[in-house]
Amino acid sequence: MAFTTKQMSLIVATFGVLSFIFGVIAENKKPPSGTPIPGKGVVICNYPSDPTVVLGYLSFAFLVVSSVTGFLSLFYPYQGKSIPQAALFQNTSFLVFFNIALGTAGLAAALLLWPTIVEQGHLSNRVHHNSETTCPTAKTGLLGGGAFVSLDSALFWLVALMLADNTREDYFEEKGIDGKLSNEVVLSS
């Protein structure tokens, strides 16, 4: 199946928005703390049932799909025509937005995974030998922050895709119909 840049951008945007939505819901559903139940030499934490861990992992999964699709969409041979990667990376704007998209994707992944894994650990290890435990949950705000950075990442992938599309058009304009350089274009090294 042949994809167009519009289809790829729609996929990136859709999964980016889904990652954002699930991350925000995970942040809002996370309980502030559990209920400590004192026992003989231990404290057992009782946490209310909440979908934070599942929503956190879903948000991360949609971030990965959005980022991988965004990355692949930059180098996809649209209409069967591929462009050398060197031609893309010569465009300074593309290079900047490409690196920002990679960086925000990594930051969003860290901000989504860290509290999700910590929350899963708290829910799994309910017995504490410290009698003064307050039954903590993951740090508040990280999932929400990760959700916003995830949305930013998708937007940066979209900007990089637009810049790649412009570079691709310029590259093929410089080429003749048969792939040879046109007489009007003089490449200097």
Total domain count: 1
Quaternary structure of the protein: single chain
* Portion of residues within helices: 55-70%
Secondary-structure element pattern, one letter each: HEEHHHEH
SS elements, strand count: 3
Q: Which regions are unreliable across 5 or more consecutive residues at pLDDT < 50?
A: 177-189
- How are the strands ordered across the major sheet? 1-2-3
Descriptive notes:
By secondary structure, this protein is mostly helical. The two termini are 37 Å apart. A hairpin with a 4-residue loop joins strand 1 (35-38) and strand 2. The chain has one domain (5-174). The protein has a 3-stranded antiparallel beta sheet with strand order 1-2-3, with no helix packed on it. The protein has helices at 5-29, 52-75, 85-89, 92-124, 142-174, and strands at 35-38, 43-46, 127-128. Residues 177-189 have low confidence and may be disordered. Helix content is 63%, strand content 5%. The protein has 5 helices and 3 strands, in the order H-E-E-H-H-H-E-H. Helix 1 packs antiparallel against helix 5 (142-174), helix 2 (52-75) runs parallel beside helix 5 (142-174) and helix 4 packs antiparallel against helix 5 (142-174).
Structure characteristics:
mainly alpha; 189 residues; disordered C terminus; single chain
Brief digest:
Belongs to the DESIGUAL family. With 189 residues, this protein is mainly α.
Secondary-structure blueprint:
Layout lengths: L4 H25 L5 E4 L4 E4 L5 H24 L9 H5 L2 H33 L2 E2 L13 H33 L15
Antiparallel strand pairs: 1-2, 2-3
Helix pairs in contact: 1-2, 1-5, 2-4, 2-5, 4-5
